[in-house]
Automatic annotation (TrEMBL):
It comes from Paramagnetospirillum marisnigri. It holds the Pfam family Molydop_binding. Belongs to the prokaryotic molybdopterin-containing oxidoreductase family. Keywords: 4Fe-4S, Iron, Iron-sulfur, Metal-binding, Molybdenum, Oxidoreductase, Signal. GO terms for molecular function: 4 iron, 4 sulfur cluster binding; metal ion binding; molybdopterin cofactor binding; oxidoreductase activity. The keyword Nucleotide-binding does not apply. This is Molybdopterin oxidoreductase. Residues 810-866 form the Molybdopterin dinucleotide-binding domain. Residues 70-626 form the Molybdopterin oxidoreductase domain.
Length: 914
């Protein structure tokens, strides 16, 4: 008989936040100090919307930890020449040498001045994938705060390739950095390319499964049949980038075919700008004394200010206003006598008149009856007039929602889609109420932890908006960063996240060549990169890689070698997911479908000892702060709340001494105590040990806080829809400023600023881009698009073999997905190696023949074509990013672009590939 070997086994609660659908709870099973598996954290049952379960990606974290290809010592470059084909000649160095080298460099920057001669920050930093790195970077934000100006201009596709227009307009209209359906209550969802069963994490997957049991109907409108399409009630294979036409036609049906009484007229009158009178110059007619927008009161038969208490405003009709003013750009005022006036709603009705389902059918390649059917079903399910009780509060019940996926949400056409999506909700009062279309979180408007608190009364009865000024003298004629967000993008504002949400590809492009009348910015003296891989994630990756080689000094936190840290001067290996400590917020409302009935904090803790020489991020940061001479400022920033919450509040003070370096546990112990104290008004103080034992600390979060509606009613505010008077003015001003500065290369983008959007040939822009590149569009007959894939979180875990193994079960993994009959016409069989080319270049992979894809569209899932990342580089997978264009012409007014490109497909001959 064998001796019983006693194994020390423990289960360590922690979190996964590897994609924006997190944070999700999980436990790590550790045997004799070795992480052996990941499991749900059952303590989360009834608290976490997925009852404590993480998704498949979290199960890869064990392999991530023990990946033999990890960078496990600091390293420095020995070959000064940078480029894809230059061997960096990395050699291992001690932490002392690495930290001293970085600190010396940073000190030299401070001595030279934080801004360079062009007024640009000498230090730049990029953190990838939708802000998720912030949940792994410990106290780094405190060091960044202590530093001063930093350029966050250089993106990786997060932001401009993400749900970008939604981020900006969504937040502007209803504090919706991202948007979701209120899946818990809704009955009917129209999803335009929201791949929520793949991208929404366990919370969304669980919710949609429960909703299907309840009998919900989801219509998935997208060019190829994604897993989400496959488990929807209906799939509508729309032509790429024609979604605005589909939605305009839905509006047309609702406004021109359905009876008015089917709409939520009360909501339109009292909670939107629908009654505001539009004058002859397209601007609101305003009261001459107060400058308040006027509405037409049907009771008194005359114009009154919008906030007149007892008015019953007209939504339709044509009126004459005896005397009014309008506010033109640049503070100019026009006076109107006997002005013709129409309510915004009437202007909307007229504007949507041409967009009939028959018209849209031609544009979208979808039968008119399908479009009409979806619109009518939406209307039928809207339950206008009904209410529901949530946490003891009676709220409107409108169980219909419209959601938009990332390629619908960015690039040309995205503005129209976001606008139409929000107007569809307002027409039936389904915005921000149970069952309807909801915002999830805020990132541009503070405070980030509760979006409801970010709502304050602004101008004209709407909520406040934080925009970059476009008026003379106040407009930022000199950009403050290399993507010029304050100069070009008024609506992005200038809060801490704004720059990373600017037109981040321009920063890369301008390193090579700036357009006329624009001073080409010098690269930053130092660029810090963490958990981001623009060399794989962005567009036209080969050109981007060349531009990246121009960065003179790159500090990269490194997990394995990858295509971006290939350009680094110093590699810093931080302890990763299962090896390090951080406390973050959980619950309340967050991205995607992270709506909880609780909120609080969750701890990431070392389940195992860090591998090799890798060190906790907080330790690395503290050392950098100390060696750069910024310790005091860094500690002050932590005390102020840069690590999570202020360490001092009412009834508690866990502030750290500012003149000394603190240990990792000491810092997080103080943060744990302050966080729990602040959440409970000081009544419960949980220290680091308690959090390690219990994993998370939450208190109830009232579910009516999922909805903005009560806040809007409380503050008597209106949604700034359907008419965009303010944006019109801003656009006009921006145009004047740019033209005064001799800048005409942003003129097409200026066209996006309209009172009511209209259709323009959105997909045609990608065709024109082919012509502009000097090629014949007929040679590129297919649409190339991309999609997320369940086991991968962008390119973050591309080097983990388990993910590839699991993904092998998915249709089209690592392949070019193509419609079977289109493929056969090209002589392509399933599994054949094919080449997909565009005006930018080509990419190769095997063909996956499917029925569920439009004949004119190919799909390349995920982001691959690595040439450095171990394991991933041997997969020989294709990537849309190698062939998509990075161009000003394909940039919309928010500064975003789409993962869309015109392509050709051909079968590779035998012998063409090794
Ligand atoms: N084709 C295609 N391209 C896309 C998209 C798409 O769907 N298809 N999506 C776009 C979107 S929406 C986004 S948000 C962007 C995201 O793109 P990026 O911001 O570039 O993010 P990731 O691809 O996740 O890159 C993560 C990098 O961090 C490294 N890494 C992983 N774990 C660790 C760690 O613990 N420590 C350190 N130091 N490094 C680590 C990985 O090796 C990888 O190089 O991609 C965009 N690009
Ligand atoms: N598993 C996983 N989840 C993730 C991520 C991840 O990398 N992996 N990334 C996270 C991030 S950063 C983001 S931004 C979100 C994105 O989340 P989603 O937007 O839900 O993700 P995608 O899979 O990129 O959605 C693409 C879908 O849009 C369709 N599509 C493409 N072009 C068009 C078009 O022109 N019109 C229409 N109607 N549909 C179109 C495609 O068919 C595809 O099904 O996912 C997040 N969640
Ligand atoms: S959905 Fe995202 S955050 Fe949640 S467990 Fe999966 S990878 Fe982690
Ligand atoms: Mo994203």
């Amino acid at each position: 008989m064998l001796d019983k070997v006693s194994v020390q086994r423990k289960s360590v609660p922690t979190y996964c936040y590897n994609c924006v659908a997190g944070p999700d709870l999980m436990c790590v099973t550790v045997e004799d100090g070795v992480a052996v598996s990941v499991s749900p954290n059952h303590a989360g049952v009834g608290i976490h919307p997925a009852d404590g379960r993480p998704c498949v990606k979290a199960y890869g974290l064990v392999q991530k930890t023990y990946n033999p290809n990890r960078v496990l010592t600091p390293m420095k470059r020995t070959n000064p020449k940078k480029g894809r084909h230059e061997d960096p000649g990395f050699v291992a160095i001690s932490w002392d040498e690495a930290l001293d080298m970085v600190a010396a460099k940073l000190r030299s920057l401070r001595e030279a001045g934080l801004l360079n001669a062009q007024g640009m920050p000498r230090l730049a930093a990029t953190f990838g994938h939708g802000g998720t790195p912030a949940n792994y970077m410990g106290t780094l934000p405190a060091l960044l705060a202590a530093w001063g100006p930093i350029d966050f201009s250089f993106g990786s596709g997060q932001g401009v390739k993400c749900v970008h227009s939604e981020h900006l307009y969504g937040e502007y209209w209803h504090r919706a950095f991202t948007v979701c359906a209120d899946t818990v209550h809704t009955n009917f969802i129209v999803s335009f390319g929201t791949n929520v069963e793949v991208s929404g994490g366990p919370c969304a997957v669980r919710r949609h499964a429960d909703a299907r049991v309840r009998g919900i109907k989801r219509v998935q409108v997208e060019p190829h049949l994604s897993p989400t399409g496959a488990c929807s009630a209906q799939w509508v294979p729309i032509r790429p980038k024609t979604d605005p036409a589909f939605m305009f036609a839905m509006l047309n049906v609702m406004l021109h075919e359905a009876p008015r009484a089917a709409l939520d007229l009360d909501f339109l009158r009292s909670r939107t700008a629908s009654p505001y009178l539009v004058g002859p110059d397209g601007y609101y007619l305003r009261d001459p004394d107060t400058a308040k927008p006027l509405i037409w009161d049907t009771l008194s038969g005359g114009p009154v200010p919008f906030d007149h208490a007892s008015a019953v405003p007209a939504l339709e009709g044509s009126f004459t206003v005896t005397r009014a003013i309008s506010q033109l750009p640049d503070g100019e005022t026009a006076t109107h006598d006997s002005a013709p006036a129409r309510p915004s709603f009437a202007v909307l009705v007229d504007a949507m008149a041409p967009y009939t389902p028959d018209w849209a059918a031609q544009v979208c390649d979808v039968p008119a009856a399908t479009i009409r059917g979806v619109a009518l079903e939406y209307l039928e399910n809207a339950c206008v007039g009904q209410t529901i009780e949530v946490d003891g509060k009676t709220l409107p019940f409108r169980p219909v929602a419209v959601t938009l996926g990332k390629t619908v949400n960015n690039g040309w056409g995205a503005y129209e889609c976001c606008w139409a999506r929000t107007v569809l909700a307002t027409l039936v009062g389904a915005l921000e109420v149970p069952g309807g279309t909801l915002g999830t979180t805020v990132r541009l408007n503070r405070p980030f932890e509760n979006r409801l608190k970010s709502v304050k009364p602004g101008v004209d009865g709407f909520m406040n908006a934080q925009m970059n000024s476009t008026t003379k003298g106040k407009w930022a004629d000199k950009p403050k960063g290399r993507n010029a967000h304050t100069t070009l993008i008024p609506i992005v504002g200038d809060s801490s996240w704004a720059q990373a949400l600017g037109p981040t590809h321009l920063a890369w492009m301008f390193l090579k060549e700036a357009p006329g009348e624009w001073e080409a910015p010098e690269p930053p003296d130092v660029w810090i990169a963490y958990r981001t891989n623009p060399a794989v994630s962005f567009w036209d990756t080969s050109q981007l890689t060349d531009n990246m080689a121009k960065m003179p000094f790159v500090v990269a936190f490194a997990y394995t070698m990858d295509e971006t840290n290939h350009m680094a001067d110093v590699l810093l290996p931080e302890a990763t997911d299962l090896e390090s400590t951080q406390l973050i917020r959980a619950g309340g409302t967050k991205f995607v479908e992270q709506h909880w009935a609780h909120h609080g904090f969750v701890l990431r803790q070392p389940a195992v000892e860090p591998m090799g020489e890798s060190r906790d991020f907080t330790w690395i940061t503290t050392e950098l702060a100390r060696r750069t001479g910024l310790l005091e400022g860094y500690n002050k920033a932590i005390n102020r709340g840069a690590a999570l919450v202020p360490l001092k509040g009412e009834g508690f003070d866990f502030s750290l001494a500012e003149d000394q370096a603190h240990g990792v546990d000491e810092i997080w112990d103080a943060v744990c105590k302050a966080a729990t104290a602040s959440l409970t008004g000081g009544s419960e103080v949980k220290d680091l040990d308690w959090m390690k034992e219990n994993g998370f600390f939450v208190v109830p979060f009232t579910r009516d806080d999922w909805y903005l509606h009560p806040t809007m009613v409380e503050q008597n505010l209106r949604y700034e829809l359907p008419y965009q008077e303010r944006l019109m003015r801003v656009g006009e001003e921006l145009g004047r400023r740019l033209h005064e500065a001799g800048i005409y290369w942003w003129d097409e983008q200026l066209e996006e600023y309209q009172g009511i959007p209209h259709w323009h040939d959105v997909p045609g822009r990608w065709v024109k881009a082919v012509e502009k590149a000097g090629a014949d569009p007929a040679d590129f007959p297919f649409w190339g698009i991309t999609t997320k894939t369940m086991p991968y979180t962008t390119g973050n875990n591309a080097g983990i073999p388990l993910m590839n193994e699991v993904a092998g079960n998915l249709r089209g993994h690592g392949s070019v997905i193509i419609n079977a009959s289109s493929a056969r016409k090209l002589g392509i069989q399933d599994g054949d190696r094919v080449e997909v080319s565009s005006v930018v270049g080509s990419t190769r992979g095997k063909a996956a023949l499917v029925q569920g894809c439009r004949p004119d569209t190919i799909v390349i899932p995920g982001q691959f074509q690595h040439w450095k990342t171990p394991f991933a580089k041997d997969l020989a997978f294709p990537s849309l990013n190698a062939i998509s264009q990075m161009s000003l012409d394909l940039t919309d007014a928010t500064g975003s672009g789409a993962d869309v490109v015109r392509v050709a497909v051909r079968k590779l001959d035998v012998g063409e590939e090794p």
